[in-house]
């Protein structure tokens, strides 16, 4: 069972099996069950990277947080429609490296 809600100008599907938000495409529901296990795990890795990046952005100085969050979101949106699994894995590893660098920089600055 699922429920359609509007969030941030986009319609999302909330499923009862677990909390997930999938964008609706052309008014058709994107089903959780339509993802094969490998795709599901890859999607989970992408969402985990996004959450980690947003948590790290909270440690940045107040004047830089909004711009940093905006940059993180733009990077994710830029690659949102990528269907090449090899490219997605590359982007995840690149994102983790960039996140590690940001985290180290914030540690050195004492944030």
UniProtKB/TrEMBL annotation:
Protein name: LYR motif-containing protein 2
Record-level GO cellular component terms: mitochondrion
Alphabetized InterPro entries for the sequence: Complex1_LYR_dom, Complex1_LYR_LYRM2
Keyword Signal: yes
Keywords: Mitochondrion, Signal, Transit peptide
Major subcellular location class: mitochondrion
Signal peptide limits: 1-28
Job of this protein: Involved in efficient integration of the N-module into mitochondrial respiratory chain complex I.
One Pfam family linked to the record: Complex1_LYR
Source species of the chain: Lithocarpus litseifolius
Residue ranges occupied by any Complex 1 LYR protein domain in the UniProt entry: 45-100
Family (UniProt): Belongs to the complex I LYR family.
Compartment(s) where it occurs, according to its Swiss-Prot or TrEMBL record: Mitochondrion
